Amino acid sequence: MATPLSLATLSDLPDDVRVPSYDRADLSPGIVHIGLGNFHRAHQAWYLHRLMDAGQARDWAILGAGVRPADAAARDKMLAQDCLTTLIELDPAGKSAEVTGSMIDYIAVADDNAPLIAAMSAPEIRIVALTVTEGGYYQKDGTFDAAHPDMAHDAAHPDAPRSAFGAIVAALRARRAAGSGPFTCQSCDNLQGNGDILRQTITGLARLSDPDLAGWIDANCTFPNSMVDCIVPATGPSELALARDFGVADAVPVTHENFRQWVIEDKFCAGRPAWEDVGATITDDVHSFESMKIRILNGGHQVIANAGEILSVETIAGCMEHPLIHALFRKVETEEIVPHVHAVPGMTPEAYVDLIETRFANPQIRDTTRRVAFDGSSRHTGFVLPVIRDALASDTPVEGLALVEALWTRMCEGTREDGTTIEPNDPIWSDLQAAAKAAKDRPAAWLDQPLYGDLGRNDRFATAFDRWLRMIWADGAGAAIRAYTA
């Protein structure tokens, strides 16, 4: 029988499950992390856990936090098992399990975020980190969206904010008043220049209610850019069963691939753990690493996920097994994305495509096309459209990238080719679906959306997009992909 996971039962777990070597009673908090999803627990929390296992960073433990009503239920599950997480590595050569303990508490979730503000105001907190998804930074056309209702609310109610960013501003206001000093604000989301974007959001929000505080934050807080990488599927019944197969009854286990990467800019105003001692890369050139990863891996996900949804291929590994979708991936990556990616120390863009191809094809990772296709309005604008702009500027091919956008359009119409329904899968799904339906007869209707900016007026791209979308509707996605890859 599986053993319920808790601090009291760690010694009862099977011998092949790695458990923390440190005593949790020896840990004290140094980090608040907002957004306790699977990715954070498989990535940033793991790096800190391994440092603690090595006898370091005992004063850098994580206090978890959330700002959504749904986070309260997640908090209950985590507290019931003392904030421990079972990580299950899915390697084609064999599976392994490890329990991590770097998170020591989960802050109470409240509408006014008062418990979160109080926790971040404590002098011992030196880093506040976030994983809140690419579209969660209140950006519009590359600038801070001060008119968003959440930001307007937080500016009008700075002591009772509804967003994570409003809570951060409130905590920094309290720290300045108390003389506790600043903390580092650390984005761990898949955004190019994520630290710069976080600075823009925090200072932009602060400026709406307290310009002097905004100036203090800008002058004293640090916002390091970083690149994060690990494929981490969502948790469902099969993941729960997999944990039980290892002898662990974990309500929120996490599966992940046998690869991690974390590249961090060394800008920490109040110190940091020595993450480089457990494999992280500390560098002044995060941009080159993140550009390679965002364009080849994250962009590659968008190349195949929409085609997979249309053709009823349920997983990313399944897409890589599908001859047409795999061929689409390979040709778009090597011919249309790689030319706009620079090498980094130890890795060429071509070699990175080979690595990503292997990782995507890992049959042990049940990463769904639906998860990868989620929030395309943020992911295409962040991962694909910048490459299209570079290709147009340098007069290199865009046919495959135009096909990728046409496939996304077809997916947003809301049905698969087998007639089944694609459920809403984007924060602005209704707008996307309306544009996709209009584009069935007039492809330009899709490109007229604000997210494309001036791309819809570029004849080379618009002409290719028009041709591919009409072919998809007339002959099917497979025929269009076949025509491109032939």
TrEMBL record:
**Lineage of the source organism?**
Bacteria, Pseudomonadati, Pseudomonadota, Alphaproteobacteria, Rhodobacterales
Q: Which InterPro entries match?
A: 6-PGluconate_DH-like_C_sf, 6PGD_dom2, Mannitol_DH, Mannitol_DH/Oxidoreductase, Mannitol_DH_C, Mannitol_DH_N, NAD(P)-bd_dom_sf
Pfam family of the protein (one)? Mannitol_dh
Q: List the keywords (alphabetical).
A: Oxidoreductase
The residues covered by the Mannitol dehydrogenase N-terminal domain are 30-276
Q: Which Gene3D superfamilies match?
A: N-(1-d-carboxylethyl)-l-norvaline Dehydrogenase, domain 2 (1.10.1040.10), NAD(P)-binding Rossmann-like Domain (3.40.50.720)
Organism this protein belongs to: Loktanella atrilutea
Please list the GO terms describing molecular function. Answer: oxidoreductase activity, acting on the CH-OH group of donors, NAD or NADP as acceptor
Locate the Mannitol dehydrogenase C-terminal domain: which residues?
A: 285-470
Q: What protein name applies here?
A: Mannitol 2-dehydrogenase
Superkingdom, natural source: Bacteria
Q: Does the keyword Oxidoreductase apply?
A: yes
Keyword Oxidoreductase listed? The answer is yes
